[in-house]
Structure formats: C-alpha cells, structure tokens
Write a structure and sequence with these properties.
Layout lengths: L11 E3 L9 E5 L6 H11 L4 E5 H7 L11 E3 L5 E3 L1 H18 L3 E6 L5 H10 L5 E7 L2 H11 L6 H8 L8 E4 L5 H9 L12
Helix pairs in contact: 1-7, 5-6
C-alpha cells in the first residue's frame, strides 16, 4: 500500500500488517522531519542492542567537491537535491555495509528517499533475506520549515521541498507524524511494532 499523508491526525497509524521481530527499522522522512530525535529515543525502547545509522553520516563523509563530480549529489540553492549515478554507486556501497552490520547487530536507519521508490528498492535488495520494518516519518511542511530555520545548519527550503516528496510511492508498514507529537510518543508507536530483534521471516 502506498503511503498517504497523516498530518493532523494521530501520532501514528499502521498501514500494513504487524511486523514481528525485524532486525532493521528504516525511518524515511524529509530533512527536519524529526528522524534523529525519534531514533535516539527508539533505540532505548527496543529490546536488546540496536545501532543508529544515519544517511547524514554518509553525506558528511563525502569530499567537499562531491557536488562537482559528474553524477554526484548536488544541493540546489532552493533546497532541492539532485542525485546521479556516482551518488547511487556510493549509496549502494553504504547500504551494503549497513546490511552487513545488521546481520550481526540490529539497526535503526535514518534516511530520506531522495530517489523515491527506486531508493526503497535499492534498500530491499541490500537487505534481502532480513526482516525490515518500514516507517514513514511525516511532518507538516510548515512545521518542518520552522524547525529548519531554528536549526540554522540546513539550506533553507530543503525541509519544505522534501516533506512530502520523499514519501511519494513508498510502501510503509507504519507511519508516524511528528508535527504535533513528541519523539517519545512516536518512538513508542514504532517500538510497539517490534517484539524482538530476531524475526523469522523476511519482508
């Protein structure tokens, strides 16, 4: 089932069957949607040991000139992002690395599917054979833009540009809305869908 906006409704809602025992929880949301604050609380609520892995770590590891590399990742002045083949090559390697970690230690991944359904498919390929809980982290564009202004460490316009676009065509097991709900409230909704880090069936 494709994701649909939940802004202004409840803290979270299930949009698929309950997933028991995932080794990986993938949080997909736009910039300033609250993924990091949510995951920080979530790993303390989940059973056993879980690691937090953020796509920003990958982006920060790139050379400062990567936006000049043909097919790389380019951040436009209006906050929109353009990705090409070289970015996808690097991203695929990063996903493979996370998959290797997840085979030993359960992980919560914070990402923003800049390539839409194609990005989710790349994740599915990297995580093949593992149980995954797909979570959409939604936030009203106005709320996300306000958070972006308060942070002061993001290109203005990025949050608004990504708030809805990163969810288009994505299939989720669960969605949470951080617009009016705290990280603790949203994390509790996600944690309720995870019973143990060792699940029997891949998804």
């Amino acid at each position: 089932m494709s994701a649909h906006p939940t802004v202004g409704r409840s803290v979270g809602r299930s949009v698929g069957p309950r997933v028991d025992g995932p080794r990986v929880v993938v949080l997909n949301g736009g910039s300033s949607s609250g993924k990091s604050a949510l995951s920080a609380v979530l790993v303390d609520l989940l059973p056993g040991t879980w690691l937090r892995l953020n796509v920003d770590t990958l982006i920060d590891a790139l050379p400062s000139s990567f936006d000049e590399v043909e097919g790389g990742l380019v951040l436009r002045p209006d906050g929109t992002i353009e990705t090409g083949p070289e970015w996808r090559r690097v991203e695929r390697a990063w996903m493979g690395g996370i998959a290797a970690v997840a085979r030993e230690v359960a992980v919560v991944v914070e990402d923003g599917f800049l390539s839409g359904p194609v990005a989710q498919q790349r994740w599915r390929e990297a995580l093949e054979g593992m149980q995954v809980l797909w979570v959409g982290v939604r936030c009203d564009p106005e709320v996300a833009a306000a958070r972006e202004r308060d942070r002061g460490d993001r290109v203005l316009g990025m949050a608004r540009a990504q708030a809805l676009s990163v969810h288009e065509g994505i299939d989720y097991d669960l969605e949470v809305d951080t617009s009016g709900s705290s990280p603790k409230e949203c994390a509790a909704v996600v944690a309720a869908h995870v019973s143990t880090p060792d699940g029997p069936n891949p998804r």
